[in-house]
Design a protein that fits this description.
The protein is of the alpha+beta class. Helix content is 30%, strand content 25%.
Length: 260
């Protein structure tokens, strides 16, 4: 049976996904394993199992494989506005790339614009995890910070309240016309293993970065293992409503230290 799942994984990972952006990965340096260990084989089996469930139409999967200390836990989720086909494509590539980029780590996470996948020896389901925090900000600043930050606060209050509702799947998104030439687009999403309270806690911590690292920037993304927040002055979520994305500009990256 193990060989069957290994074959499934190899076949599915031969598919290449054309992502809108390059993946962001975190390979925990404290969880190095040998490629010949049982844990490594369990990761392969787990990823094959996750992909099989997405092939069946799932858009969120929690799974585990192994016994006792060799057990590997995994979670994969697509952004809530994504089609099922694009979701499957993204997860397939995430599973492929996480093994390529983090081949010897039992704890690894990978983020795309459209999906997220992680595996670990720790049973993390249901726990708020804000480590690592990976931040991206646009290097261009807004021209009217007072007005912009007021509208930014308003729109995130609105979409946060959507995301914590059990029926939302952890997703909240909206847009606000600022001027005749500018529209603010914002999106938040929690992983669906979180309770509404835990989702709200994760989003609140992520949004705090807007006043620090992302202060007055025209675009910002905060990537946590339990939630994701983003705003831009161009459309980046579906439906795009026929609008063309403007020049996205340049972004700088920051890795937030462990808060634990």
């Amino acid at each position: 049976m193990a060989s069957f799942f290994h074959i499934v994984l190899l076949l599915l990972l031969s598919i290449t996904y054309s992502s809108a952006d390059n993946p962001t990965e975190y390979c925990n340096p404290n969880t190095v394993i040998s490629s010949s260990s049982q844990i490594s084989a369990n990761i392969d089996h787990l990823l094959a199992d996750i992909i099989t469930k997405f092939l069946q139409g799932d858009t969120f999967v929690e799974a585990s494989y192994g016994n006792n200390k060799d057990t590997i836990y995994g979670l994969a989720q697509c952004r809530g506005d994504l089609s099922s086909k694009d979701c499957l494509d993204c997860i397939q590539d995430a599973a492929k790339q996480v093994r390529k980029l983090c081949p010897t780590q039992s704890d690894a996470r990978i983020w795309y614009d459209y999906c997220f996948l992680r595996h670990s020896q720790d049973k993390f389901f249901g726990n708020v995890d804000t480590f690592p925090g990976i931040l991206y900000k646009n290097t261009e600043n807004v021209t009217n910070p007072v007005m912009f930050n007021k509208e930014l606060g308003n729109i995130f209050d609105k979409i946060d309240s959507k995301a914590v509702k059990p029926s939302s799947g952890g997703l909240g998104k909206d847009q606000k016309k600022l001027t005749n030439f500018e529209t603010l687009y914002a999106l938040v999403q929690c992983t669906r293993d979180l309770s509404p309270l835990s989702c709200g806690q994760c989003l609140a911590q992520a949004i705090q970065n807007f006043e620090g690292f992302c202060s007055n920037s025209i675009g910002c993304r905060v990537l946590y293992s339990s939630c994701y927040v983003r705003y831009e002055l161009y459309p980046f979520f579906f439906p795009l409503e026929g609008q063309n994305s403007k020049n996205k500009g340049h972004y700088t990256r920051k890795l937030v230290p462990n808060h634990h």
